[in-house]
Amino acid sequence: MKQSVPGAAGPRCASPPSPCCWGCRCGGGRPRRTGPRCPTAGIAALGRLPLQLSVPISVVFAPGSVPADLPRQLPYRDVREEPVPVGSRSDVAARYEELYRGTTAREVAALGAATAREADAALHALQDASPGSLTVYVVPESSPLLPQGTDVYVGKHRSALLRAGQGLAALRARLQQLTWVMSLPATSIAAALADRVPDGQLGPDARRHLKSSLGYEITFSLLNPDPKSHDVDWDIEGAVGRYVQPVLDKLSVVANFSVDSQILYYAVLGVTPRFDKESSSFLLSAHSLPHVINPVEARLGSSAASLYPVLNFLLYVPERSHSPLYIQDKDGAPVPTNAFHSPRWGGIMIYNVEAPASPQASLPLHVDVDMVRVMEVFLAQLRLLFGISREELPPEFQVESPGNEGLADWELDRLLWAHTVENIATVATTLTSLAQLLDQISNIVIKDDVASEVYHAVASVQDAMAELAEGRLRSAFQASKEAVTSSERAFFDPSSPPPPLLPRRPEVCHLHPALPAHGRSHPSLPGQDPAGRPGSARRSPPK
According to the UniProt record, where is the region Disordered (predicted)? Predict the structure, then answer.
């Protein structure tokens, strides 16, 4: 059923006799349906975005670690609230619901392990930690689990070991520091609310993280501009299975991922490198890097037809006439990884080929790419693109490597926090824009299914906010995803007013250091035959 009504609802329902375009019983006109009340009041409330983020924390004292000035006998509960500094236009508060208790007999046995890593694994097997929660085990000052100089051990799940300090005040200071590291850093929340925070209040990386999406497409491309000189062989199929797929499996709760790969021949960079006589090499300066991507992007051919954001990871083997090729940072020093990344786009790595020992060597030279070295860089770039970067920690903190999964459970939780908050903000912006567009049009047609999507989006956002306040991160994230889906269906429905076209702001390339590889895994994936005629590209189907 369609409803054609002169006039449209703005932030509030129009007072009688002006009609309401949603066809509800709000008093704005003739009743058109007996559905929910008018959503415009709910949309206006979403724009104010009052958020409370609750984090359940268990503080567990091992024998001999209980502070003498503890205010009550164990077990007891306490609540700590503090604002999250994200800007004047958003109201976000953190509520830490802390349970203080002693260890169980099985936890005591687990804490008797030889190393902190073994203790973390044993404690994880005893826990039923929900996403967004933390468990902090306080151990005696003399505990051998924490080596000299280390007061805090952050595991790869959702727990940490904390050396008992001098009294309750020192313990609480450490707990506050630990919770900001493992759960709700202001930088992640500010980045999630980047569109609502004034530019002057944002850090340099706040607008560089990937926007939240229901899916992402990852494309690995090998660029061989000189196939007459280089016959390059890369085992992208095996590398995706061993190094990338475990990370994507971990991220599957955040979004859906598809992976493909291609080889592009005669694809050159859009910048002519400078020859350096002293080092007998070619150099790409930092200021030239932003000009590298556009000419290469025209050859990739994936972004235009994609429904989701595309992450590009390019391995470039320089032509023989421009080898070796090195990237310089802004100070003129060589970048150790010989790679750079562009926020919300992807990354490029330069892979130099050793010159043949003899000038008479036959061409093309066969090149086997070291995929371990390449994937170390690409996975580091993937973390940077998603904003999964380690905070600068005090020297007394020790953080366990996440292994072949690429990110720890608590890092995944931080990503869920940020994406949930961003989804809520996105829905509020989308629905507010829709209401404003309707307010500018004198005659509008609102279909029942469009109105239903708006009702569902508002209800889902309210559910997400309620779940966040209760500390149920996973269900809050799922509700926020549903809200995004419904709001976009309503906004982009053919019967809705067309959104204005806005120019795309270009992104700037940023250099980054390499991060170490985190373990190995050996599943196999279907892939592609890397062979192809010069100038062609072969792609594997999304997985």
Answer: 486-543
